Amino acid sequence: MSRTLSDYVRSLDANSGRAVTAAVPGVSDKDDEFILPLDVAGYNYSPNRYVSDHDRISDRIMVGTESFPTQSFNMWDSVWNHSWVIGDFIWTAIDYIGETRIGFESSSGDVDEMSQRGNFDWHVSFCGDIDIVGLQKPQSFYRNALWGVSNLEMLVHRPLAPRHTERVGQWGFPDQLKSWTWPGHEGELLQVVVYSKTCSNVTIALNGKTIGTQPIGMATQITSTFSVPYSAGTLTAECDSTSSGHSSQSLATAGKPNALKLRPDRSTISADVNDLSYITVEVVDEAGLLVPEAAVDVAFEVTSGQAGLVAVGTGNPQDISSFESPRCTTWQGRCVAIVRPNGDIESHGPVTLKATALGRSWQTVLNLKAVIDEDVALFV
Questions:
Q1: Gyration radius of the chain over CA positions
Q2: Alpha-carbon distances of 58 from 29, 53, 79, 354, rounded to whole Å
Q3: Which of 46, 117, 305, 370 could form a disulfide with 348 if both were Cys (CB 3.0 to 4.6 A apart)?
């Protein structure tokens, strides 16, 4: 079967010279025959085989075709140190509907603790680096540091109740947030986690007072953890980068929800149904800071017949509200609305999305540009 499928793929892609691969779950010696027709052997959750299989079959090229989020450092360390391992695919890039709750995290004793028993209103996998509405989760910030996209990332672990422990699923990640807003936890020691591959040492300070300094980098698996007594203010992580100079990142305590901030991914889209505008809505305080734990009911309305509201939602894995509703409750201070032109390619100009919450309304204006090619195919 592997030979048949590999040859068929090559027949469809005969002139490209691109490699054929397939994922093999839990690789063992018995899979040699299946792997032989492939140009690259796909290893699912089998990094322990990279060296031994290379010793047996030295010309085999390998790639990690599935791996756990919490194992990312080890997976990429294997890539960086073994020339025959060419990369790794995390499971997964983005949350998806189905395989519900495989990426869970919970505190022992919580009502939502996943024991694979009982009915829970989870509608997504929750294993992605990116949540289902396109916003970054903690493992995505970790990967920014791992891949050198950013020199430094700082997150804070959500406080656990006394005598409770955290339970993380195989495809999950610790419950960390980019937040220094934890009212009700004054004086408690909170776990602050810093990620960096390029820094040699990192210093944590709270309101200008140094809490401590620790080494960081490859020797610490790009992770340093601090215990910081919580008080409102500004938490800062600073480090001297070995490759690109001084780096720092700060988290400031937010106040109460005061307003909405609407941020469209683009201010101009084409006036046909093939284009969409994704508008991220953030709950902010008087200073314009995101309120990280704000759960605010938001109602949406598109005040133009040229376009319509086609979906709203959040990354909340336990919110099973319909995405077709014109209302949603923000999760971790955010939600996303999607606006779609009505398909009349002759119709263009401004379109207004209005969001109402906290007894007031805010709006953003999109511009629908004319479609130059009037023969464009429209798909609904």
A1: 24
A2: 14, 8, 16, 61
A3: 370
